[in-house]
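pls ignore typos typing on phone
zinc ion + seq
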Amino acid sequence: VNKNLEDSLAENASKALGELLSNKHLYQRTKVSVEFLDAEFARRLSDYGEEPESPYGPPSLEECRADLERWTTCQWSLVLPDQNYCHQYATIGSAKDVLGVFLPTIKTVCANPRCKERAPFNPVSCSVSRNNGVEHEQCFHLEYQCQSCKGPNVHFLVRRSNAKLTLCGRSPIEVVEIDKAIPKENSGFFRDAVIAHNSGQTLAGLFLLRVFVEQFWKSVPDVSAAVAAKTRPTGDELGEAYKATLPNDFKVRFQSLTEIYDDLSAAIHSANADAILFEGCQKQIVTHFEARRLFKIR
Ligand SMILES: [Zn+2]
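k done
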């Protein structure tokens, strides 16, 4: 067994897990980098040439390749930082290979209301189950704790298939940090929109973003006064009433929300789950509210 090879793979697996838990959202993936195995294979190939297998000679190509590939398809054993782990011990006495993967420290937003910051979290517990009895199909249940408040643990469910890792579950749900310029009274819709988009439900996200715009318009006293005579004012009517409340120099320099509203409506009506549109509208909405602050519009 090539010790370095095994260590590199375990290290890359740990990195991919850290990236998944720190920076990815529900149902997103990371992949363990295994490119170095190709380089290792090429190196062995040039070292040994294409000699046929012999009891005393160098290993065959098949042996080389099998030796490299078994580490991507073997079972993983997850190791907590305070546990001692030796790859050699894991394989001795067992016919099957086991790759010991250290659980990384991650960064995520703490759900504790006293904390609510992006903080380092340490792994405190883990369990592993196999899917369909296959070595390289595994499910990990991981528990992490916030270093700064030592509050309740965050639970993650990760599915592994060979070198691919998918974030399949998280409790409590991720806390989304949103820009402080977004008005608090309506920020719930905005936050839910971002969570929906992050979880792969962009169309629901676009809809929630439009709900946010609409509810914000309705919360502006001048707007509600302007449409008071109508039982069900349309988005266009609300938008026009809102536009009328903005100073002219504001409208010259910044978009009112009506353009964004129209773009969102068009996407919703054609069921177009456009991720680029979502992220663009998200940015433009933030810019709009920052501009309101700049103009001191209350
Ligand atoms: Zn905390």
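Residues 3-23 form the longest helix (21 residues). Residues 20 and 276 are 22 Å apart (CA to CA). more later
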